[in-house]
Amino acid sequence: MTGTHETRGQSNPRAEVMVEARYRAIVDTAVDAIVVIDEVGGIEAFNPAAERLFGYLAVEVIGGNVRILMPEPDHGAHDAYLARYRETGERRIIGIGREVFGRRKDGTTFPLELSIAEWRDGGARYFTGVMRDVTERKRAEELQRLLVNELNHRVKNTLATVQSVAGQTLRNATDLVDARESLTTRLLALARAHDILTHESWDGADLRDVVASLINSHGDALRFRAEGPSVRLPPKVALSLSLALHELMTNATKYGALSTEPGRVVLSWNQTTEADVERLNLRWEEIDGPTVSTPSRQGFGSRLITGGLARELGGDVRLDYPAGGVVCTINASLPRPGQPGRFIRGAA
User: Fold this and answer.
1) pTM of the model
2) Helices (H) and strands (E) in the chain, counts
3) Is residue 48, in this structure, part of any structural domain at all?
4) Which one, of 244, 219, 211, lies nearest residue 319 by Cα?
């Protein structure tokens, strides 16, 4: 130990040496910082772990007031704390422990866990404080809190989307079989989008991965041509676009170009910069399929694409019905890296 208190009263010199040796063996090798003060706050001992924690050498602080290790308000009030304890004996920390802030030699502050024991040597009263830096633990707790909040937000967001999809599906279904099939495929499309985002730690998704998942799920890659560069989509945009592309693919498979030979689909996109704003330009075109015409009413898919997706992207989304096949065009701005996307509202 770099500094120790002086034994008062009669003592056996040999026993005192043995006690001191044991004391040093324990305290000097302790991982936690250990500081001993007298009843008025004077530092009597300061172990090596305390030197590492606070940045002071023992010789710099022994004999000084322990206030030097504290930021305000404790720095200015500590003497009063000790005086009140001497007068009342009321324990607020001693034997209980608490989290406080410490101050290093360079002036930086940090959270620490403090436990204090009181002891006497002869007629003198001493306090031993054992301290541990909990900065990393606090950081981990904050990260956990953020992750739980983010998970809560995502779960609520997903449930709202599922609720909206389910409601719209049941409202438009012709019978229970149709409702079950439509709802199942839509939820699977949502699940595939979640898989992509989870693989990317929910930082976003590459449009090419979204399209590849779409093609793989429908198993007709030879009649589906996709071409475009890597475009990073924010999570909410990726979810909304995945659902919209699923609706287009389902319609093409049941009624459009993929429902008959030699129909095919061409999906192309690019990313441009206009007035310092990144924009996504996407075109879905069905070719050589059955003759189509503008439907008399909008179904779930049409409302999702021209309503929900358009709001999510904050851009222009069009569905056209030339005789040769359905054409969907999207022109929308993309958030810059680090900029959050808009809130996904589910199907409208």
Assistant:
1) 0.61
2) 10, 12
3) yes
4) 244
